[in-house]
Structures are given as C-alpha cells and as structure tokens.
Amino acid sequence: MSPALIAALPFLGAVLPALLIRTGRSHAALAAGAVSGLALLGLLLHLPAALAGQVITAKFDWLPWLGLNANFMIDGLGMLFATLILGIGLLIILYARFYLSNQDPVGQFYTYLLLFQGAMVGIVLSDNILLLLIFWELTSLSSFLLIGYWKHLPEGRQGARMALTVTGLGGLSMIAGMLILGNIAGSYDISQILLAKEAIQSSDLYLPALILILGGAFTKSAQFPFHFWLPHAMAAPTPVSAYLHSATMVKAGLFLMARLWPVLAGTPEWFYIVATTGLITMLIAAKIAIFKDDLKALLAFSTVSHLGLVTFLLGLGTKVGAVAAVFHIINHASFKAALFMSAGIVDHEAHTRDLKRLGGLRHLMPITATIATIAALSMAGIPLFNGFLSKEMMLEEAAHTAWLGSPYVVPVLAAIAALFSATYSFRFIAHGFFGPVRDDYPHKPHDPPFGMWASPAFLATLVVLIGVMPITFAGPFVQMAANAVVGGDLHMHPIKHWHGVTPALIISGIAVVGGLILLASFKPLKAAWEATPRPEAKAIFDWIVGACGAAADWITATLHNGSMARYLTLFTIGSVAAGFWAFSGGGLGPETREMLPITPVALVGWVMLVTASASVVAFHHNRILALVLIGIVGLIVSICFIYLSAPDLALTQISVEVVTAVLMLLALNFLPKRTKRGAGPLKHVWHIAIAVVTGLGTGGLIYTLMMRDFAFETMSKYHLVNSHTLGGGDNVVNVILVDFRGYDTYGEVTVLGIAALVIFALTEALLNGASSKKLIAWRPDVPRAGDKHPIMLLVGTRVMMPIALLVGVFIFLRGHNLPGGGFIAGLVVSIALVMQYMASGFAWTQARQKVYYHVLIGLGVLAAGITGIGAWFNGVPFLTSDYGYVKLPGLEKFELATAAGFDLGVFLGVVGSVLLALGGLSRLARRAAVGAEPVHAHIIAEKPEARSPEQPGAFPPETLLPQRWAQARGYTSARQDDADTKPVKAKKTKPTEAEEQ
Amino acid sequence: MELFWEIVISALLVIGGFFGLVGSFGLVKLPDPMTRLHAPTKAATLGVGATLIASMVWFGVYKDDLTLHELMITIFIFLTAPISAHFIAKANIFRDWKQDQLPPPAGNGNWAVHEVESDTSAEELQEAEVSQKS
Prior knowledge:
By secondary structure, chain A is mostly helical.
C-alpha cells in the first residue's frame, strides 16, 4: 500500500463511524477498527523492506513552486511510529467501545479519533517538512476535539483550549524554524535536508532555527516549562488520554527531534538546550507525580517525566543515546497505555480515581490489578520488565555525561529522577491495589468485561515479553528505527540484562530501595508538600490569556467602537491619503483621448443624478425618504449602464436595487425613522470637508483616467477576443463569471452562502436567547396601518409569480450569449419569491415553501463544484468548460455549455442566500409580533413537515429505528409490549405545536 | 406600405409622448395627493403602452423580428401600476386623514387601514389553509 494511502485512510474512513453510529456503537467501533486495521496491514506489508533498511516513498507534486510536495516515505523511524500509532489506536478503539457509555456521542469520538490518527500517521510518514507542518497543525486541532470531547465538563473545555493554545503556539514557532531550515538546506524535503548537515550546522541561522523548531517540539511533548497543559488535558475520556499521552500526540515532539537528529544534534547548543530541558522535566515532573492523588494526574506527570527522559537521551547527541531513546519510546508506549487503560477501568468500575479513596482493589478486580502492577513495575524500572532495560541504558549514558565540565551533575539528577519515578510507580500499585479492602468505594468495583481489559492485557504481555527477551521482541525494531535516527551505519550492541556491576545498576538499586523508603514515609512527605507554596501553572496561564484578551479588547474597542461614522471616516481618509500619496509620487502622461460630446440624454441623466444625490444629502434625516432617493440614484446608475452598453450590469444593478430596498425596509422596521442631529457644528464641517475632498479626488481621478489610455494593455481585450473560442459564449461578462474567473465566482457563491447562514445563525440567537425578551417587548415606533395583506397585492403577486419565474428562466438560459445569467436570474427569482412573502405574509408563504433555503445554498455550491470536477473526467483542469449547440424544435438554436451547470449553482446559491438572509431579518419582526407564544413556535411555523400532525419528525412514521437510539431521543415504540430488541416505529412523544396563526 | 407603417409608428409615439406630458403636467398641477394620483397612472399605462407598441411595430416591420417582450412589459405595467396606485392611496388615507374626516365606506365596517389588525385577505389566506389540509 502506498505510504500516501496509509496516511489518507484514517481521514477517508473518518466518515464511517459518524454515519454508522446510527446503527449502534459496535458498528461504529468496528468500522473505525477496520479502517485502522487496514492501514496497519498496509503498513506492515512494508515491514520486511523497512527492516532491511529500505525507504519506501510516494511523491506527488502539490505546490512545487512553494517547495510543498505531498511526499511520503516509510523509513525505519516512520515505520516504528506508524506501527505504534495504528497498533495502539486499534487497541484504544476496542477499549473505547466498552469504556464510553450510551449517552456519549460515540460516533463523534471515533471520527475525531480517526482524524487524529490520520494526522499523526501523516506526521511520521511525511517526507516534506511543510507537509509535516500541515499534519502537525491537524493534530493540534483534532486533539482539541478529542480533549474537549466531554463538552459538558468545563475542565474538558478549558483543558482542550489550553492544549490548543500551547501546542498551536509551538506549531507557529515551528513553522518559522522549518522555513529557516528549508531555506538553509535549499529544499523542504526531509530526505534532502538530512543530507545537509554541514551547511545547516555552520549557518548563522542554525541557533534561531534550532530554538524555533524546539519550541514546537517542546510544547508538543510537554517539556518544561510548557509541561502544564498535559495534566489539564486529562479531563478527556481515558481512551483519549491513553492514546494521546502514550503513543501519539506527545510523542510527536520526540519524533520530530529524532527525525531531525542527524542534522541538528551533535552541537553544544543542542546538548545544552535539549538534554538540560529533558533532565529538568524528568526531575520536576517525577517529583510532582509522587504527590498527585488522582490516578490520571499521577500518570500524566509521569508521562511528562518519561518524555523528559527521552528528550534527555536525544539531547545527548550520541548514537547509543539515540538507541536508548528509541527503545524507551517503545517501552513507554506499551506500559503507559496499559496504565492509563487500567486507571480508566478503575474509574469506570469504582467511580473514583482518587488514590485516597482506593486501595485493596487487587482482591476485587484481580485481572486489572495484575495488568496495572506489571505495567507499573515496568515504569519503576524493575528487572524483567521492559522499562528496566531502557532506564538502565539511560542511567548508563547519564553516568558518562559531563555537564559544564562537572561529571556529577547529570548522574546525580538522573538518579534522583529514577528514585522519584520508582516512588510514584510503587505508590500507584500500593495505594491503589494493595492494602485492605475498603467498604466506602463510591461504587462496588469488579473486573470489567473481557473487551475492556483485552487491550491493556495485550500491552502488559508485550511489557513482559520485551522485558524477558528484548532482542527477540524489540531488537530488530529498535535497530531499524535507531538506524534511521542516526542516519545509517549503526552497530547496535545487543540489549542485555546483565552488564556486570555498572554505575547504572548501582543507581537502579538505589532508586528502587529509595523508592520503597520514600513510599513508607509518604504521609509526612505529603504534609510537607502540601505546606510548601508552589506556582500554579493554570493560574499563570489563565492570567496571561486574560491579559491578552483584555489587550485585544482594548485595541478593538478603541479602533472599532461600533460607530459607523468613525469607520467611514477612517476608511475614506485612508483611501484619499493613499491616492494622494500615489499621485504625488508619479507623473501624469499627456491626454490621449478626446472629450466625447455631451448628448441631451446624458445631460438629463446627469442632472437627475445630481439632483437625487443632493436630495439625499438634504433630506437624509428622514430615513425612508432617503431610501427612496437612493433608489432613484440606483435607477439612474442602471440607465447609465444601458447607455454605456453594459446591459448585464444594468440588469444586475436593478435587481440588486430592489433586494437592497427590501432589506433596508426590513432593517428600518426596527430602527428609528429619523436620524438624530448628533454631531456639533465643528464635526459637521469636518465631515463636509472629508466628503468634498473625497468626492473631488475620486472625480478627478476618474476624469484623468478616462482622458488617457491605460499604461498597459488591459485584460478586457483578451476576454473579448477569446470569449467565444475558449468559453463558447458571446456574453463576455457571463463567460468571465463562469469560465475565465470561475474560481472567483465559486468562492463568491460559497462566501455568499456562508454570509446568509451567518445571518440566519445570528437571528436565531436573537430569537431564542435573552435578547428575544427585548424583541418581544419591542413596540413599533410609528402607528401601524391596518390591512396587513391587501387583497389587490395578493392577487397581483400571485398572477405575476409564474410570469416572473419564467422571466428568471429566460434570463438564465440566454445568459451565456446575451445579457443575463445565473446571478441575475437568481435575483429575479428571489424578487418573485420575496413578493409572495410581502403579499401573503411570512407564515403563509413559508408553509408553502417545500425546499429549505439552506438546502438551496448547499445544492448551489455542490452543483458548481460538481460541474467543476466534471472537467477532470475530460482530462482538463478543474472548472474548464465544454460546450455544444442544441436545436430543439420550436425553439431557437441554443447553446448548452457545461458552464450552464456552474451557472445553475450560482443561481441556486443566490436564491438561497437572498431569501435566507431576508427571511432571517423578517423572522425578527415576526418574533416581535408573535410575542408571548411558546419559544419555538416561529421555528415550527417555518418547517413545513413540523406543521402536519401526520409527520411529527424528520422520519416518516413507518421508518424502522434502532431501539436504544430511538429511546435516547424521545421516540417511543409503536409496539411497547414486544419492543425489547426489535426496531421501533418513529413516533415522537413530544406534542407538536403545529398549529400556526 | 412603408409610409403607412411610418405613420402608425409616429402616431403611436406622439400619443405616447402626449400622455407622458399630460401625466407629468398633472403631477405638477393637481392640488392634492388623491387627485395627483390620477396623473402618473395615465402616463404609465397609456403613455408607456403606446411607446411600447410603437417599438413592437418598428421591430416587426423594419427588423423582421417580431418580439413579444414589449407585450410582456405591458402586462407587467398593467399589473403593477394599479397596485402601486392602490398603495399610495392607502398610505394617503392612513397618514393624511383622520378617521372622522373620512366618509364612511360602503357596506359594514371601517376603512381597513384605520382598523388595527384588519386583513382584507384573511379569508383568502384562511381558505387556502383549510383546502390544503383537507
């Protein structure tokens, strides 16, 4: 299987759980497992090649001019990490199936998990640092979703935010570092960068690049002083903690350091930054872990400590250190995942993770106790478990390391850290599982079903197997990965238990004995710990975030205080100043064009335009009158367009004018009808001065422009010449929209749809939130006339509706060659529909509207997208259009271009957006009028199917629904008596407030 | 024959222009909103209508291209002009006249615009509701 496909599989498969959850948790888990399993299988097929030292690659050009290529490779290091990610992922999927309850949105969980898994696999298989950065940020985002999975818990949300902030900021720093690195090496491909060791290490920018990249790696791997986010991320469900903090997320930083080890390591800077940070982290986190009562908090700090250990080993810059680092990564992943899962089982069964409330569990849940004990002993570094071997290697290395010339600093600190590590491991076992059985557990614990302990048991078995026979079970893997880390030619010494009485063994012995002594004297130590003041990372973090937020608020409030006049002033002055600056910097060519004669028609138009504009200025205090006058300005502008042979623009202008007038009226409904005279005379003069200068400046600029030929040839000539040959249409404006600048239009339709949805969402918030009270209490500021729906208008609009729609269709169809097109047709049809709303009332019309406008917007974007993609099947780039002419009897010969499909998308998008936006605003008025009716009455009024009592919900009554799913959502069985396992009929018990005024 | 068509077209244009002028003159000359309302409706229907027919004839005769767009425009104008006149009248009754200054309308009841929550289409909207349900 191609490396690219392995990385893509989890992303592709992420939709499956989200869909299959409707058929039950097991299916969702099965689908997620199948996807991971398939990716793992595809990966392991490359194992023999990777063990033989080969590198499997897959290369795709993505944005070659940026150096961003979708290059993937599987080398030893990538192989090891990808196996860990996918393998432990598989175990977690199984575990989570039993851990998560029915009330949790399990489908979401598996979707997030697969997204995260895909991002992680992407990181470890990338052969391009820019691609790696993309996946890196994706892990930050997807881990945010996972950590905040229990959205109802404030700790979960805060922990997720903190993790995202810290790792996201680190990611930003890393982007800068990576760009420097790629710039020095002359390529962004990792395989190329790894060859450029001398160039990189001798560069002046080596140190900045190193610090920036390490900023990313340290935040991700929770190294001091960024370690604080990891314990707070423990608010996530245990499967997430087990996955993120054993095999994946936090290992990404280590992976990066290992990946770039050949080019970055070996210098004093590397040693002093990386090894020192690792050592400090290892020590501090181990000390904190001892005193944590929460099982998961203890494990979280122990994880930080072990990450520090690996960082320290990588920081040494020696080949033996790299081997030890790789070996410890494997060992830590196995025992830590098992420990997290055991802690989760304890939490799940006993309903507490507090060590003060636990104890004696080995009698009640022997299987879990065995697994946890094995894993914890490995963590403590007891012989015959795998943790012992790698910790021994670490101590051996530490014993030979001098720090600033002193040979004692590193070994002593490492020994203390090992001692602490043994202490918290023993405490985990002793306080959790040993001791007498208690009778005050919140819930009587017992061993969980097999599916739940299978995953940790498997890992515990691995712990023992690697511990007993390291060469057989881990040797080739370690050799393969370490070889890739150091860049080849590695001669690994066999991993042995007995090296004779070495310093490492002595330290190990001291650590174990000291750990037992510390555990025995735990109570006084704990009391002393409680008494010492220490900085609370979360408080500091919150303070910094709060200060940043306050600063941002201050800047925003100063610049952006909500006064429209201020924005306009700033914007206008800015543009005038920019124009003046540009004008004063350059020369002005001679006039090359003749002044056209002033025709009487043009003169009349000009006089009307000036009069209308002047009237707006004079009468702007009366807002409705101003609206009418602006309408006149708009109409004259449209006439100008016709006069200057731009019928398309004229049509657009007229229809936009109508829609805008309706929009303004809807807004004016709630706004005062007269503008207050607020500004003083001085400000008035100032505003007049700005207006005059801007007007004169703009007019002068346009005059000068139009009296001269452009300095360079314009685009329009190309469009005019090629419109028919390339786009197949004679209406150049339309061809530009749907063909030449199709990408732009595609984006614009999407943006239009998004804007409409945002308006809808905002009004939704106004309708239901606290502000709805304000709406209900609102009373019109002018007396309202009676006769809401004059019968004459009603009849008139209904007669006109089909004609107007026909006009819309006509304009749409002729659009490619004659003035018209999807955009104008969309506006025309919108206006036809808006007329119905105005004449027959919102409720009546909405009830007859069978298609949601949301759906129209979606369909529009889809239609445009599918048309664009259709070009691929023709072997041409996205959105290239094709066309042919069709002759139907009775009609003129008309053209059928694929661009029409695209135009249809534009059409649907425009209709949906306009009506959704206008509808959103008119719903406000409706809510105000409905007053004290039930909160959701207005929504029910808008959903056609909610109105008829025969169809109470989204499902027709005969739909078969899964039993438990339906019960969780308030549907009851049609057959209560025998409804145990059979699917139920859809029938909502909730009463439907269908009747509408 | 050509002369005939030219005369027809010219006559239509003159009629159109005349009614346009009359309409505009009336708008300036007539004393109050209700009477003034008559002027532009004439201009819109007769004036624009005659011009449109002239355009249709001209295209039909000289361009051999008989288009029906003008008829369509005429229909739209015929439909919309009375409605806008109706609305202007209603607005005038509501804004410029107190209820007791107005003569009572024929039949029972009051002027609709002066009756809060009144709805001349209520029956229509209600009936449609019922027929859809049944």
